[in-house]
Specification:
Layout (H helix, E strand, L loop, with lengths): L1 E6 L9 E5 L2 H4 L7 E6 L2 E12 L12 E2 L8 H14 L3 H8 L14 E7 L10 H10 L4 E2 H7 L1 H9 L3 E7 L17 H12 L5 E6 L5 H14 L3 E5 L7 H11 L3 E4 L5 H12 L5 E4 L11 E7 L17 H12 L2 E6 L4 H9 L3 E5 L10 E6 H4 L9 H12 L3 E5 L9 E3 L16 E3 L4 E3 L6 E3 L12 E3 L4 H11 L5 E4 L9 H10 L5 E4 L12 E6 L3 H4 L6 H13 L10 E6 L5 H7 L3 H14 L7 E9 L2 H18 L4 E13 L2 E10 L5 H12 L6 E6 L6
Parallel strand pairs: 9-14, 9-15, 10-12, 10-13, 11-12, 13-14, 16-26, 17-24, 17-25, 23-24, 25-26
Antiparallel strand pairs: 1-2, 1-4, 3-4, 3-5, 6-7, 6-8, 18-22, 19-20, 20-21, 27-29, 27-30, 28-29
Helix pairs in contact: 2-3, 5-6, 7-8, 18-19, 19-20, 21-22
The structure holds adenosine-5'-diphosphate (ADP) and zinc ion.
The site of zinc ion has 7 residues, from loops.
Length: about 725
């Protein structure tokens, strides 16, 4: 047998299919889509079998396949085709598209690690011998079917061994999945009229629609998802639910487990490689029909899909930025829904502008849940103007926030504090008046470059010198902003020495299982205050939390990104939604230097629609998405002069080949120099450009064997750094 194998070459070389012979002993297991390891020059590489070229003969000129990586794990026809579409849409290699479809745990060398349980059953025709009491006890047990080893060992190990040796008991191995879901029964709530309307619309009109469910925090979206999934389950269909990694907490998984038991497979970073491997195989074997996971779960090898749900659809975690393929899970979900003729349901309390605009145009169907389920109001939001406060207090806490925290501590209620630390670029701000420097052309915050003591725009390259006097208030109070959770924790300990503060950030949650443990102990009220970064903002549901404080709303506003207002509005709305989720009334306090900014003042009113309208006008004026598409071309390499001159050549060639595209840059990236690699960005803005893919492909082609330079293309980048 001769097969064509797409080989996993790590260099940026072309995708190539090479031919190999299949040795006799592997012929029965070879399938299209299976992963194999093959000799390649002096190396051993992995690859995917893409075609069976000849099922009968072999060729003397070809080498043999070494082995099959895992015979259970095969990319099916749908996924193989999907990979090709992805390659074309993201301009990445086909092999990288196939690789991203399989979890890392299934990569070379780690697979094959299957756990087994040993069972014993009675041999049908055994010789009758005299049994002692222990042996009799064992035989009694196994009479009714296989029994797991542990139970029999508990009676007597030596009796067990004797019975096996004499051929009375037979040993059987059965696969043991490392993740277990309970099948406990549970009563589901009766849906509200609003919820029911949404469910009915989605299940009755099942012909490949994309729905956008705009539902405020606590409006019962998750309950709606589960109802829809149950419907499709009853039709024998499967479902995918995507959630941002950060909200894929045990709280969330538990809700699905309670409803669907062993039908679910949850794939998240809290699992060990072995656990992931088992979950994936349960999916491949059709034992799980509901897959819950982060971005890459959109590739779950389910068949007969009934619905694909993307919760918190605005989250930028659905876009893979690095490495390629730079895909968006939403696009993949829509592609898969076409194949399965099913619908996609996007849900959010703060839909992305792109999705809302599509809903407005009728490309997506808009559904909404405007009220919280239990008739509760959304929490009251107070804005504290830090420009005034900064003269009164020393640290980062306003008097109002201090008072509010104190009253919760007195009442034994809990507090969540958000330290907004989105992004990692440095920008300059005035400590006195809150002034920040913005690009006059692109309206994004300028980034500070220490080496040249300048402020630069990362979109268009505009630069200006830094002075130490604020152009707005004329005070000498310019400062690089940035404060860590540790510093805030210290302040809290001083302000409230008797309170228990739980700090949740990247450092404290990096150990496996810590994130879960922290959430659990906060829920059990072992702590009074949960202080954290973005990870405290999403998906958490604590009934005793009645105050949410945002220490600094401004950092995310000042990120050099055209989405900074949108991201701030959605972050603040999300975190506000953590307050007052049960019977106790909730409050939110937002500290800011920009109290008049619409992202903040409209969050106070919980007014997404007005925010959407205002932001859309800005996007239109400045030619940003959703009015224009954006594509970022990143040019990087060790020699900054060379990189810049090549970047200029790329720009020139694009200018010659594109007709209606706005081309910005090259400008130095905010991570201009990282690990001695310099990066420049060229940004394209376009509405329609028929020649774009051809022009970009040519550029990629041109540099493909040039080791001094790397060209990365990112369509619809989620962030531009
Ligand atoms: P969202 O996902 O929109 O934030 P959830 O689905 O988490 O909302 O619902 C918020 C809370 O209300 C949860 O505790 C959920 O169990 C509860 N809930 C949802 N729907 C109903 C309902 N129809 N009746 C009673 N409780 C409900
Ligand atoms: Zn600019």
């Amino acid at each position: 047998m001769i097969v064509g194998v797409l080989v996993e070459l790590s260099a940026k070389a072309v995708d190539k299919v090479f031919e190999y012979n299949v040795p006799c002993e592997l012929i029965n297991d070879i399938k299209v889509g299976i992963r194999v390891s093959v000799p390649f020059g002096r190396m051993t590489l992995e690859g995917f079998v893409l075609e069976i070229k000849d099922s009968k003969t072999t060729s003397k000129d070809l080498k043999d396949i070494i082995s099959i990586v895992d015979k259970d794990i095969v990319l099916n026809k749908e996924l193989l085709e999907l990979g090709k579409v992805m390659r074309d849409k993201t301009l990445s290699t086909l092999i990288s598209c196939y690789q991203v479809m399989l979890p890392k745990a299934l990569k070379a060398g780690r697979c094959g690690n299957i756990k087994y349980d040993t069972y014993y059953k009675l041999n049908n025709n055994y010789d009758d011998i005299k049994f002692n009491d222990k042996q009799k006890e064992i035989i009694e047990l196994v009479k009714n079917g296989p029994v797991i080893r542990k139970e029999l060992v508990d009676i007597s190990l030596s009796s067990l061994n004797t019975l096996v040796k004499k051929g009375i008991l037979v040993e059987e191995k059965s696969e043991h999945y490392r993740v277990d879901y309970s099948d406990e029964k549970f009563v589901k709530p009766k849906l509200t009229v609003e919820q029911k309307k949404v469910v009915d619309e989605v299940i009755s009109n099942n012909n490949n629609n994309t729905y956008l469910l705009y539902g405020v925090t606590g409006s019962g979206k998750t309950e709606v998802y589960m109802e829809i999934i149950e419907h499709f389950l009853s039709l024998g269909k499967t479902s995918i639910v995507l959630v941002p990694e950060i909200s894929l907490t045990p709280q969330m998984i538990n809700r699905f487990e309670k409803r669907f038991g062993k039908k679910i497979a949850a794939i998240h970073s809290g699992l060990s490689d072995g656990e992931k491997y088992d979950e994936y195989r349960r999916i491949s074997r059709k034992e799980a029909s509901i897959v819950i996971g982060a971005r890459s779960a959109v590739f779950a090898p389910l068949e007969n899909i009934g619905i694909i749900i993307i919760d918190e659809e605005h989250s930028d975690s659905y876009k893979q930025s690095d490495p390629s393929p730079r895909y968006h899970a939403r696009d993949i979900a829509i592609l898969r829904s076409k194949y399965h003729n099913c619908s996609v349901l996007l849900g959010s309390a703060t839909p992305s502008l792109e999705s809302m605009a599509r809903a407005e145009k009728g490309v997506y169907k808009l559904l909404s849940l405007p009220h919280r389920v239990n008739g509760k109001e959304l929490p009251l939001v107070n804005i504290v103007d830090m420009n005034k406060e900064i003269r009164k207090v020393k640290g980062h806490f306003s008097l109002e926030l201090i008072d509010a925290i104190r009253s919760r501590l007195d009442r034994k209620e809990q507090v969540i504090l958000l330290l907004n630390r989105r992004g990692y670029s440095s920008f300059v701000t005035c400590k006195n008046c809150g002034y920040t420097f913005k690009c006059p052309k692109c309206d994004i915050t300028l980034t500070y470059h220490k080496s040249s003591n300048t402020l630069r725009c990362h979109y268009c390259g505009h630069g200006e010198k830094v002075y130490d006097i604020c152009p707005s208030c004329k005070e000498k109070a310019l400062n690089n902003l940035g404060v860590g959770t540790q510093k805030i924790e210290e302040e809290l300990n001083k302000l409230f020495p008797n309170s228990k503060v739980l700090r949740m950030d990247f450092d404290t949650t990096s150990r496996k299982g810590m994130h879960e443990k922290m959430i659990e102990s906060f829920k059990n009220q072992e702590y009074d205050i949960l202080l954290g970064t973005q990870m405290v903002a999403k998906g958490l549901d604590f009934s005793n939390v009645t105050l949410v404080g945002v220490i600094n709303a401004d950092t995310s506003l000042n990120i050099p990104d055209f989405r900074s207002s949108e991201n701030t509005f959605s972050l603040l709305s999300q975190v506000a939604g953590r307050s007052g989720r049960s019977s106790k009334e909730g409050q939110v306090i937002i500290q800011t230097y920009n109290p008049e900014h619409y992202a903040i003042s409209l969050c106070k009113k919980h007014d997404y629609i007005s925010f959407y309208k205002q932001e859309m006008m800005i996007r239109r004026d400045l030619k940003y998405p959703p009015y224009y598409y954006i594509c970022n071309i990143r040019v990087s390499g060790k020699d900054s002069n060379y990189i810049l001159s090549e970047a200029l050549k790329i720009k020139n060639s694009l200018e010659r080949n594109l007709y209606s595209t706005i081309i910005l840059g090259p400008s130095s990236s905010s991570l201009f120099k990282m690990n001695n690699i310099y990066r420049y960005n060229i940004i394209l803005k376009y509405k329609r450009e028929d020649n774009l893919y051809v022009a970009l492909s040519k550029i990629i082609e041109h540099y493909i064997s040039n080791n001094k330079i790397k060209v990365d293309i990112d369509f619809n980048p989620s962030q531009m750094i």
